[in-house]
């Protein structure tokens, strides 16, 4: 078995040949920014992909969250309830719009904040929050319906940070959904983001905020904003990325299913993140028991297999957010160390996945490998499609 290093992440953006036809359209139109024809077409296709009636493109995913929070947060309130278990960009976005993160716990299985957790926490808060920021865990689908009912019950608005979940969306409801188009995402353009909405009036204001608050034909700033647009060149990459997206989704799904099959076939005391393979991500996680964490990462290191804690151990442990209040983080503190990001990209072979999975502990009563040969055959078949 090879002992060459295995990278945890290998971004994959469109090639020069795939982008070139769109670049030629830029040359012909001689429009380079300011909501040009390629950016408009990209937004329309992104709306079709995600089931969003309206799309506001932004310079990155963090600015998308900031704009959505500025438009949705209730005035004269300072708290934003959010999970501590998320990438720090979410907390930075909250602070950048003048709100204070109030860190709360997650469900230990789904790894996300739930309406029930927020409602149980509300009596502990010093004041009612301005907004709730709900995070998709590493690209998993979000429960928009449950949160819509939460908004109706409480009157507290919700914003979704679905940074990596663009391909897990089939519709967008009342609350805005913010996605990242970073190179590390399934749909990547290098740097970029978007706010998806079912409310055209919301999107009109959000789009205006990306262009200095100009609304209508007059060059008058109707609302406060900034320059958060994408160029036509970024949109060209986006259109080419959409062209290539079905093949990329199939590849990532095959990788996740190969992991799942090998984990089950060899009786590992570990599991993929809930639902992984039904939805796809470039930040795939295998979750272990707390007592197995140190031995597992030691084996990965010894095998020269890169791994990551994509979100670290919680925002509440970062010095930048040490002064932010937190409420009941027992599940976060227990679960976060057990979530191990593993390689997930088109450079993996069946042998690589065997080698990675072998670093995870075997259950006490593990099935013998030869008893699960059909599953092993499936791994070979899946990965050979990459």
Automatic annotation (TrEMBL):
The active site lies at 185 (proton acceptor)
Q: Which UniProt keywords apply?
A: Aminotransferase, Pyridoxal phosphate, Transferase
- Record-level Gene Ontology MF annotations: pyridoxal phosphate binding; transaminase activity
Q: Which residues carry this modification: N6-(pyridoxal phosphate)lysine?
A: 185
Q: Which GO terms describe its biological process?
A: polysaccharide biosynthetic process
Q: Which InterPro entries match?
A: DegT/StrS_aminotransferase (IPR000653), PyrdxlP-dep_Trfase (IPR015424), PyrdxlP-dep_Trfase_major (IPR015421)
What protein family does this chain belong to?
Belongs to the DegT/DnrJ/EryC1 family.
Name this polypeptide is given: Aminotransferase
